[in-house]
Amino acid sequence: MEITLAESLCGFKRIIQTLDQRKLLISNPPGTVIGNETYRSVANEGMPMRGSDGRVKGQLIIIFLVTFPQNEYTGENLKVIGDILPPRPDYGYCDDGQVLKSELYDPKSSSRRRRQQASQGETVECASQ
């Protein structure tokens, strides 16, 4: 179930439809944070248990995927958010003062590129030390 960052932090109520067409209200109270890829279960709302003629059901497992905003925050918005959240830890600095910038990385496209290179006879090898 996809939820927004605001829902993750501030709570939510959602209705989901089960395979047998019933509707269930799934909620999380404000202050109970749900992290990305968190698993939660609802007892007796899952698949029917074998040999029970559908009368006994297992757990309904819900995987929560938190969607984050796309670079929408600047200036005053960031200050407000920073004031609300717990302080960021200070990890200090490297001795040489070098600052490196990270870039977005897509493992799917990277593995696809490696497969294409391998199919074309290109290989990447690590140098031995």
Structure, briefly:
This protein is of the alpha+beta class. It has a domain at 2-71: Sandwich (HSP40/DNAj peptide-binding domain), CATH 2.60.260.
Walkthrough of the structure:
With 129 residues, the protein is an alpha+beta fold. It has a domain at 2-71: HSP40/DNAj peptide-binding domain. The chain has helices spanning 5-10, 75-84, 107-119; strands spanning 2-4, 12-17, 23-28, 38-42, 60-67. The strands form two sheets. The chain has a three-stranded mixed sheet with strand order 1-5-4. The protein has a two-stranded antiparallel ribbon with strand order 2-3. The radius of gyration is 23 Å and the shape is flat. The mean pLDDT is 83. InterPro entries: DNJA1/2-like (IPR044713), HSP40/DnaJ_pept-bd (IPR008971). This is DnaJ homolog subfamily A member 4-like. It comes from Octopus sinensis (East Asian common octopus).
Which secondary structure elements does this structure contain, and how are they paired or packed?
Elements: E1 2-4, H1 5-10, E2 12-17, E3 23-28, E4 38-42, E5 60-67, H2 75-84, H3 107-119
Parallel strand pairs: 1-5
Antiparallel strand pairs: 2-3, 4-5
Short descriptors:
129 residues, alpha+beta, HSP40/DNAj peptide-binding domain, 3-stranded mixed β-sheet, two-stranded antiparallel ribbon, 3 helices, 5 strands, 22% helix, flat
